[in-house]
């Protein structure tokens, strides 16, 4: 039986990319005196690179390579990214982003059944707690047995490191856990760590390659029956 469900965050718990992270990056660029502006379309392309700092560096390499000559480039990117996080967290605190359909219900269901819940994400830890607090209430970060986020592992998704870290903290083998992801990069990470994975597609990820997923769904929906599938294994 499934003893833990491991949730991805961006795109899975909530649709955070287009109207959350993207405007926060743009606000940080503006605040830092940069004339960079990431459109909805460009951002879709940049999402191939996971991690905000890594995404900024990739953008610079591809579109503004002259800027790579800045002294202390790593620290400069990290500083710019801290400004981005500040904007993103304040957007969440103003109640900006709701959870996707069925997410709150599934979390409640799992808690009722004493099935562990965990997070495995590439995004920054503060972003995760801000999202959970704003969408599920002040105490909700404490409902999660493990929250694995950001730079806690050196290699981000599609590498499996964050899932390995979460499994290790849970003290459970991959066979007793399932993952919920929304992207090809996320799916590659969870599969490589050995977790059966349910994919709920998001606007940016709809046409990606989800081979290997246990199921690919539009969202977690609002079933009239409880999630009995979680008792016997993964949904087919
Ligand atoms: C999505 C990501 C993150 C976010 C931005 O993570 O790749 O980089 O786009 O957040 P996941 P940061 O789907 O694994 O939750 O700027 O904090 O990295
Ligand atoms: Mg995701």
UniProtKB/TrEMBL annotation:
CDD domains reported in the protein's UniProt record: HAD_CbbY-like (cd07528)
InterPro entries for the chain: CbbY-like, HAD-like_sf, HAD-SF_hydro_IA, HAD_sf, PGP-like_dom2
Record-level Gene Ontology MF annotations: hydrolase activity
Transmembrane parts of this sequence: none
Protein name, as recorded: Haloacid dehalogenase superfamily, subfamily IA, variant 3 with third motif having DD or ED
Species the sequence originates in: Nitrosospira briensis
């Amino acid at each position: 039986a499934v003893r833990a469900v491991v949730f991805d965050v961006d795109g899975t718990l909530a649709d955070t990319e287009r109207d959350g992270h993207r405007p926060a990056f743009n606000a940080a660029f503006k605040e830092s005196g940069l004339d960079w502006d990431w459109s909805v379309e460009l951002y879709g392309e940049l999402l191939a690179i996971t991690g905000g700092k890594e995404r900024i560096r990739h953008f610079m390499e591809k579109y503004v390579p002259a800027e790579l000559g800045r002294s202390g480039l790593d620290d400069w990117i990290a500083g710019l990214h801290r400004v981005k996080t500040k904007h993103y967290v304040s957007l969440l605190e103003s109640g900006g982003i709701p959870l996707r359909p069925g997410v709150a219900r599934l979390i409640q269901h799992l808690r009722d059944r004493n099935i562990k819940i965990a997070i495995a994400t590439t995004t920054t830890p503060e972003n995760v707690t801000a999202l959970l607090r704003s969408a599920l209430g002040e105490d909700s970060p404490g409902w999660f047995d493990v929250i694995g986020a950001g730079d806690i592992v050196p290699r981000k998704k599609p590498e499996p490191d964050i899932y390995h870290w979460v499994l290790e903290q849970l003290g459970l083998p991959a066979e007793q856990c399932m993952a919920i992801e929304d992207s090809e990069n996320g799916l590659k990470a969870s599969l490589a760590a050995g977790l059966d994975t349910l994919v709920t597609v998001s606007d940016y990820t709809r046409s990606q390659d989800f081979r290997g997923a246990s199921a690919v769904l539009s969202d977690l929906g609002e079933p009239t029956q409880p999630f009995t599938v979680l008792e016997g294994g993964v949904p087919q």
